[in-house]
Amino acid sequence: MPRFDRRCAITVGEPGALGTRVDERFRIRFRVVKTLTTETNVSDVEIYGLGDSLRQQLLEPGLIMQIEAGYASGTEILSLADITRSTVVRMPPDIVTRLECQDGATELSERKVALSFAPDTPVQRVLDRLAQELALGERATGVEVSGVYRQGVTLSTTIGDALDRVTRKAGVTWSIQDRELQILDRIESSQGRGVLLTPATGLLYSPEPIDNPEDSTQRRRGFGYRVRSLLNPKIRPGEQLVLESADVEGQFRIDTVEHMGDTRGNEWYTEAEVYAD
Q: Three-state DSSP class for 179?
């Protein structure tokens, strides 16, 4: 895992458009926080030294922002989310453009549904329809949703409340990850490739135990670890993390993730809370 040759790019534009791109030739500071909860993921960026014309392109209302970061060997998306607040701060000699984002905030706050389904409708079909109403992508996790609505069901509420009701019946959870709806088992990891984290692949320090029985929930098993690594975009909520250190070995599900970076500073790491898989 390289420690140098950092790469970072911020792209701002309308959904589906190419947008305006700013890369590591400018100083970029970012923070991305993601969880498996139904609360929206958040991210914020500070970009130093943009010219007036370029800065104004980033300040238009109704845009989304993509944060991409990594190393010269390759970069990946850290966050794709709606810009909810943009400001310009003058700190001579610097002019700093600040962009704050929430993932899927516009869709979750504005969309309501009025849907009715006939008796014996599969729960999966209802979920598929809600995904269409949400008008975001769907992330493949390998989860198979079973069950039917024997008496049918009517949903006339916000999209978030409808997702709460249907996923509760199906025994699964939902969250928005990079403008995609993610459906997961309440405990098991996504059926992706997972992430191997060792000192050789970027693990920093010893994993810090998290042992709080009062925090045992349907998505956590009550104990786990807080781990820190060099910046790793592959560490995502819901994915499996295989941890191999001098003190801890095992398979865990990633619950929360925080990415921090500064193209001119020391910060370039990922911190995650993981729980027994």
A: coil
Write down the residue that tokens 């100083």 correspond to. Answer: 27
From 48, 111, 59, 46, select the one nearest 85 (Cα to Cα).
Answer: 59
User: Model-level pTM?
Assistant: 0.90
pLDDT of residue 223: 78
Structure tokens, 193: 């490739």
The low-confidence residues of the chain, meaning pLDDT below 50, are 1-2
DSSP-assigned states of every residue in 185-239: ESSSPPSS--EEE-GGGTEEEEEEEEE-GGG--TT--SEEEEEEEE--TT--TTS
Distance CA 272, CA 233 (A): 12
Q: Are residues 166 and 87 in the same domain?
A: no
**Comparing C-alpha atoms, which of 173, 20, 3, 162 is closest to residue 99?**
20
pLDDT of residue 4: 64
In a domain, 73, yes or no: yes
Q: Give Cβ neighbours of residue 24 (< 8 Å, ≥ 6 apart).
A: 6, 7, 8, 9, 263
What pLDDT score does 175 carry?
95
- For 22, the domain range is 6-105
SS3 content of the chain, % helix, strand, coil (to 5): 15, 50, 35
pLDDT of residue 220: 62
The three-state secondary structure class of 113 is strand
